Amino acid sequence: MPNLIITNIRPHGGAETSITIKSGRIAAIGGPAEPGLKVFDGHGLLAIPGLVEAHAHLDKTLYGMPWYVNKVGPALLDKIDNERASKRTLGIDAHRQSARQVALTVGHGTTHIRTHVDVDTECGVTSIEGVMATKAAHADHVDMQIVAFPQSGLLRRPGTLELMDTAMRLGADAVGGIDPCSMDRDPKGHLDAVFGLAQRHGKGVDIHLHEPGEMGAFSMDLIIERAKALGMRGQSVVISHAFCLGMPDVAAVDRLLADLAAAEIAILTLGTPSRPVPPLLRARAAGVVVGTGSDGIRDTWGPYGDADILERAKILGMRNNLRHDTEVEQALDVCTHGGAKMMGISDYGIAIGKPADLVLLPGSCLTEAVVSRPVDRITFKRGRITARNGAAAFQVP
Amino acid sequence: MPNLIITNIRPHGGAETSITIKSGRIAAIGGPAEPGLKVFDGHGLLAIPGLVEAHAHLDKTLYGMPWYVNKVGPALLDKIDNERASKRTLGIDAHRQSARQVALTVGHGTTHIRTHVDVDTECGVTSIEGVMATKAAHADHVDMQIVAFPQSGLLRRPGTLELMDTAMRLGADAVGGIDPCSMDRDPKGHLDAVFGLAQRHGKGVDIHLHEPGEMGAFSMDLIIERAKALGMRGQSVVISHAFCLGMPDVAAVDRLLADLAAAEIAILTLGTPSRPVPPLLRARAAGVVVGTGSDGIRDTWGPYGDADILERAKILGMRNNLRHDTEVEQALDVCTHGGAKMMGISDYGIAIGKPADLVLLPGSCLTEAVVSRPVDRITFKRGRITARNGAAAFQVP
Questions:
Q1: Nearest 10 degrees: CA dihedral of A35, A37, A43, A45?
Q2: Which of A73, B46, B281, B306 could disulfide-pair with A78, CB 3.0 to 4.6 Å?
Q3: Closest CB from A70, A273, A371 relative to B304
Q4: Where do the domains of chain B lie, and which CATH numbers do they carry?
């Protein structure tokens, strides 16, 4: 494992100092360089903890494949049915494609990824197996969590629940769910199944909740009730997207935020520009842990995204109208500590004893780094360089 | 003036062809190269018309100055008052700063800029004079229109109207206005003054309308009434931002869009992620001309923006939930032909006889170019290269 000292860097935009790394972990911050230790000169760059991609869909990006001309219908089920068919017709190989997205993601400075991976009656658990192979192959480059994700519904397609159980036995890290009302048309049945799987396998849950307004708030309440009843604290329950928290009824939103905070349920937001989204600062002020991610990038759903989590800080800032430097720094914190906490990772951060997962990047301050999106970043995973200048330091298919 | 042939390019993503340029204008599309003509090999790049920055504030960016730590108060007047004071305390020189933003903007592929320039009782018309000097200095690099802009209000600060008149006599291209209800608290007085100036100087108007919902719709109706009464057709009236068109009442929005189309009034939208915005496709389907721009970048209002109009196509696409390739192409069209039409520029486009204002850029198709934001673009203004790889081919202070 690497031993070195990184000199002349500014952790979190503070004063210039050095970080000594022993066996891939931070052994000292500041102080003189030990004789004989390898020196990496940071030349005054900023240093932040590794970026956290807390919501990806690695198994189904089309990145690196021929351009896909999108003509998919407008409904959610149009997109889901089209995607299930496209996996076969386009040959979307979960192992190959997830490896490509890992390289793209790490290339921008990410050291931790949570990915939802499709489980359905057509692909079975082959996508889970493909992404698990990628996770193993890139264990030195990124820490990965896999959520078994019933994209096509859990109850409406018989056999899916059994496949989800298989996915968990194969080693998935959390049980996924999706839109308990609008997808399966049976919120009680859907959530009992999701939480039942989680209990059986001793894992957390991470539920896609696109449902807007009062319907989403109802589903959110059902999730909160189950998390409390089962004693699932400490962010072991995550609600992704949580668009209902963007509804106009501020009092209702504040009540939900208070309940989420009390139940220690985390949320994940992308700052989706076309949808109502959770109010970032208000959620954090209420004590709710907030992470962020890329969601699907360049897939059969849409052409956007390049898996740059630093860019996501900018999108969160623009979506939430964050203008002060201290506010933009909060958006960046969501991309680092927020995501780590959401994923239940305590072994994280620029502190003695933590893994040396770092990004060095130019900028006079953190906010300038967020809005300038510098290409010339240097990423360390456990003290080893995994990416420079926007490109991973390793090869993928 | 340049004579050359650009070979192996794909205009608008179509089949590979060549463009012959004589005296800076497009003389032929396709056909054999004339003997002796200088050849520029496009190596299969896409070709689009020059990008159009149809709403900038060149006079007050802080780009290239020391980082500004933003702590400004939340109200609109906080920002306006802070900015007026900051021009003096920070030394924001309109000539120097506008030249810097011209280089940044052209560097990304822009060939036409409309900029609003502050006129108020503190800076007088010095910002107008500074930007006019930039316009003259960079006439070979970009075509520029200057809107005299009463940022601090027109009636509420006595003396401003006379200064606006002076700005128009100095050669400003259009009369600006801002929020007739909420800023000057006198919509009739404000709009009569704006349209009066326009009539006196024989110019068009371009009014910032941030007012949301029914208040904005009321102001919009007052603008439409005046445009019709004065016979100001052909996009000589522009409404910038037009947030009221993002209000939930679809029937009211459709009525306004129909009236705007009938009156030949154009709108400008940034796809602002934090605000309601005009529905892009519905506006265009209704026959309304739509342009886009960067608005203020890196200024005392906020830290965002890099004046990349291709990036703006992506923001418009994400904000309006455009997923089909044909939809993203419409967002790109807003960044080229839409802006040109909004600015009243008919001498534009990839067609015989038009100025050779072109951007060459990589991508298998237009949508891929929009979502990938390639750095390696080549920009031609009247047949001369003005930018490559994200940097202007000319120097600024």
A1: -130
A2: A73
A3: A371
A4: 4-49+350-388 (2.30.40.10), 51-342 (3.20.20.140)
